[in-house]
Structure formats: structure tokens, C-alpha cells
Amino acid sequence: MNTGLQLYNTLTRKKEIFEPLNAPNVGIYVCGPTVYSDVHLGNCRTFLSFDLIFRYLKYSGYKVRYVRNITDAGHLEGDRDEGDDKFAKRAKLEQLEPMEIVQKYTLGFHDVMRVFNALPPSIEPTATGHISEQIEMIKEIINNGYAYETNGTVYFDVEKYSSEYNYTILTNRNLEDMLANTRELSGQDEKRGRLDFALWIKAKPETLMRWPSPWGIGFPGWHIECSAMSAKYLGDQFDIHGGGMDLAATHHTNEIAQSEACSHKQPAKYWMHTNMLTVNGSRMSKSLGNGFLPGELFTGDHPLLTKGFSPMTVKFFMFQAHYRSTLDFSNEALDASEKGFRKLMNAVNLLDKLNASETNDFDIDAITDKCVKAMNDDFNSPVVIAELFEAVRIINTVHDGKGSISAPELEKLKKLINDFVFDIFGLKDEDTSNLELNSVLDLVIDIRKAAKENKDYATSDKIRLGLQSMGIQLKDSKEGTTWSKA
Q: For residue 57, is pLDDT > 90?
């Protein structure tokens, strides 16, 4: 079990040695998508970052319970739970029942995660499947004196809570400034304080998603669902809670308050947040017209894209930046990642063709140690990628006959690639995953080999040049002929 792992904890704003509450068991809760529209690329970065974290913790010997929820209870416009029901809006627009909307976009989200080769979470609870748990938590918060009911809506009393706990512990914001900058919203006349937020909301006559409660027919607020589901599956206190950095100021701040008001315990020991995406230096935003859906990025069907990029290229591109760093999308950056990913996969495909020698020129343990050290440093994926390209250099050097590697070191090299490229990063070779293509090219290479042996160089050259025109490069060496994307 890896005991040298350091995480940057948003709660304390510093790196800390990772010490699980109940090692070797680790509990992770990540705020999942709200399934009333297609998942956007910022969501994908968060979920792929936590997929990397999930995979590495398992690799390090921990038993991980990874919980990623689905928000499907129709929470509202605005960061303070005010406005119209997004699910109702979408249902009316598409002339579907709200749960049809939920099913459609949940399946779409799962499809995108499969395309990115992300592992499914251990548990994927839905907000609508845990209404009773949310109601029970609200009742406990009321009993503890931190919430009140007004006209069928239950509000969390931020002022009462702040008198006993640090409401802004996650962001370190000034509470007085927050009060001064809070905009006027509908429902303020029902609240005792301007920062109070809804735990349970009274349903309007036109509200489609509604449930009975001790306070009347209504539906839960956005924040309570995660507090209830994380407590159910991970307990009142667990190890890691995460999501995008945009969730820290309101959603995660209110989660901490609710959970502490209910159980008098901090819910998570470590808080982790992924940074935002930008496009050509500007913040990625649907309103600015520079936001990409994953499908648009794959097909290139977007005004800002010159072509499409494969899912593994996009994933590789994301891992070239640290999860806490801003990630800037541009055609030039994606082109560079495409070439880098192809170079990595071409080298990986040469591994089984390498021959071990009696002598050895390389120290694979040193590279592996650097990869582990980088991952232990708050999951520093860019440094790992740099070390993997040192492994690529070794593979190409040995294949070209310019260096030798012993059998034990070759096995270590294969394990390094398998562990970090496939098991931890979750990458896969898109170019050679098609077995029919592999078989066809193997046949063509055999035909060309026979032509060369018969001194039929015209046919040999025709095959080589023909494949080259289709973007497939042949490379002859003393070990035989290999192919790669040109």
C-alpha cells in the first residue's frame, strides 16, 4: 500500500500526506452530472481526472469505493436554488416525460465515459432514488436547530450555523462581503437571512417532479442530495470529496454546512477540485460560442475546429496538464497531442517485437520510480507522460539496433507501459484495436515480403507507396516489418 501519496487539499490549501480514515479502505465521492442536457467537456475533464485518481489508488493497493452521483431531481436555475425547473423546461422542449429526459442524457453520459475508456464508479446513486434519505437528513437538521420551514419550503439557517461553525472554511471568503454581494432573488421575503438556501422546495402547480414530505408536496434542493447520498454510502466522514472548482463556492460550501449541521462532523477529510477549460485563452462557455461537446470534438463539427480528434487523443491531451491547472484547447495543441499519442502507441506496438540481449544499457527501475514519484505528488500526470516518452526512446533505440536490453529489464519495461499507459491512465490504442485491420495489414506485409524475396521490387514498392498514401507507414528492420500511422 502506497503511503507516500500527497494530495492538495482545497480545505487546507496545501499538500498533505494522504492518510485514509480507515486504510486500506478509501471512500471517494464526486459530484456527477446533472442529466438534463449533453455532458460538456468541463464535466469530462473532472470525471477523467477522478478516473485517474481512482485507478492510481487501486494500483497503490487501496480498496476504493468510488461514488459518483447522478443529479436527476430537477434542481433549479441559479446558484441559490431559484427559478424554473431545468428538467421541466427540457421535457416541454423535447415533448418527453422528465424521467425520459433523465434516461436519455444518463445513457448519453455513460456512452461518453465508455468512449473515453473511464471505469464505472463503484456506486452511481441517483437523487430521485434517495428522496427518503434527503427528507430524513432535513428533519435532523431542523431538529438540531439549523433549518426552518416557511410556507412549505425548508431553508438552511446560515447565520445560526455560522455562529458555531466556519461556513466559508472551503473558500476562505469573507462572510460580510458575501452578504453584501448577494443579489436579490425571489423568495428572499421567506428567508431569515440572505445567504439561507433551500433544503426542500414547495412545488408549484406546474412542477412535474414532486414528492410528499412532512412539509408538503415538493422536491429537494440541489445541495442536500450529495450530503444524503455520500453519508449513506460512505458514512458521516469519508476520505475524498471532489468535483469542478466551480462547485466549491456554493455547492460544496453548502454540502459541508448541511452535513456538519446534521452529524456535527466534517464530511470529507480531503477536498479536491479540477480547474477550468479555456479555448484559445478565453474561458470555455456556451454563451461565448466556444464550448465543445465531446461529439463535436471527435467529429470536428464546430466552427473553431479544423478537424476532429479521437477520444484517446483528447484524453491524452487532458492528462498533459495537471488537473489543478487551467487547460487551454486549441487546434495546434490538439495536433501536437495527436502526434505525441501516436508516437507513444507506435512504440508500445513495438514492445513485443523487441529481442532481449545478454547485455543491458537501460535502467527501467529509475523510470518507474520517477513515474510513481510524480503520481504521488498530487497525481502529476504531465511529469509521468514525460517519463513515458523516455521509455518510448528506449523502445525505439532497441528496435533500431542502437542499444541492448536484457530480458529482466525488458519485462520491467513491459510492466511499466502496461501499468501506467493502460491501467492507470486508461489509454488504449485506437489505431490497432481493429483486429480485421491488423489481419489485413499482416497479410499485405507478408505479400510484400514474398515479393522482395522474389526480387519483385516493383510490387514491393507499390505496396509500400500505396499504404503510405493511405496514411500507413511501413518500417523495415532486421527483426521484420512493422507499420504505424504516418
A: yes
